Structures are given as structure tokens and as C-alpha cells.
TrEMBL record:
Gene3D superfamilies noted in UniProt: Nucleoside Triphosphate Pyrophosphohydrolase
Keyword terms: Hydrolase, Magnesium, Manganese, Metal-binding
Pfam families: NUDIX (PF00293)
Species per Swiss-Prot/TrEMBL record: Shewanella colwelliana (Alteromonas colwelliana)
Domain of life: Bacteria
The Nudix hydrolase domain, residue ranges: 27-159
Name of the protein described by the UniProt record: Coenzyme A pyrophosphatase
InterPro entries associated with the record: CoAse, NUDIX_hydrolase-like_dom_sf, NUDIX_hydrolase_dom
Transmembrane domains' residue ranges: none
Cofactor requirement: Mn(2+); Mg(2+)
Lineage: Bacteria, Pseudomonadati, Pseudomonadota, Gammaproteobacteria, Alteromonadales
Amino acid sequence: MTLEEFKHRYNLMILPDDTGPVISHRLRQAAVLVAFIEQKQELHLILTRRASHLRAHPGQISFPGGKVEKSDKNLEATALREAHEEIALAISNVEVLGQYPMFNTFTGFAIAPIIGVVKQGFNPILDPGEVDELFTVPLSFLLDPANRVVKHFMRRGIQYPVYFIQYQEYFIWGATAAMIDRICRQISYNG
């Protein structure tokens, strides 16, 4: 899928809202940058592996992002700031396409997925306090429904879908995999 086709599909194909069960307790606000970059004439999704020494979600695959700070103008600013801090992606090097509905997790976060495209290649510099590794996954791999698995689990009497994606040695699951699944279904949606 080319960058132009991706933008076209992203802008025209809207899925019904299926954000899942509403979680009643107070959620901490966060935002992530779901960033696509063109490599060798193919779109790739940028992902990171969180530092293994972190208290929350150590070693898990995630998007660049984090908690909202008081100085952030909005959720988009949070995602762009965090991507700059974590992987040295310049804010001016991202074309923001939009924001998905908030994604609530049972771990206590309301996450705003900010969808963007990296305008030109960049030299990632990882913040060792937050990120152990940056890698990309071809969008063509993610678009294949056979590569995205969902299973349902019960927690405190509520059934939750949990998403899984295995790409090479990377095991992507949870909120990150769910957001990837949603965008893949959106840009593949035929009505």
C-alpha cells in the first residue's frame, strides 16, 4: 500500500465504534503516536520495545508515547512530545492525520492514539531510560488478518478482547496490538 493510498483509505473508511467495555474507575490520560514511515517504497509502522527496567510494562512492545503532562496543549502534543523524547522524532517531521477514539485499558489508562506519517527518514536516538529498541513492521504484514489474533478473557466479571501479533521475534499484544488491529480493519474495510 502506498502512502497516498493509505491516506485516502484512512480518511474515507470509518469503522463503527467498537471500543469495548467501558471501565468505570478514573483513568490516567495518555497519548501514543501511531507513526507510519515509508521505507523502500513500502509503508512500515514504527514500534518500540520498552526498557526492561521500567516498573510499568517492562520489555513490552509499544508505540512512542506516555502520560499527559500539564504543559501539553492537547493529546496530539503529548504524543508528539513523547515521540521526540523517546526516539528523537522531530515534531516538525510528522504529518498528523487524526486521532482515534480513546482506548481504555484495564490497567488504568485512557490512551489517545494519534495517527501520523513521518515526512522523511530520521536518525532515531533512543532514550535508554524508556526505550530498549526501535523497529518497524511492514504494513502489508499487519494488513493480513491471519497475522492478527484476538482471544477473549474474563477479568472481574467483564469479558475483554486481547489482541496478539507475532512478527519475527517480536510479540505484540494488548493495547498496542488492539490499536494496530483497528487501523488495519479501517483501511481494509469494504463497507
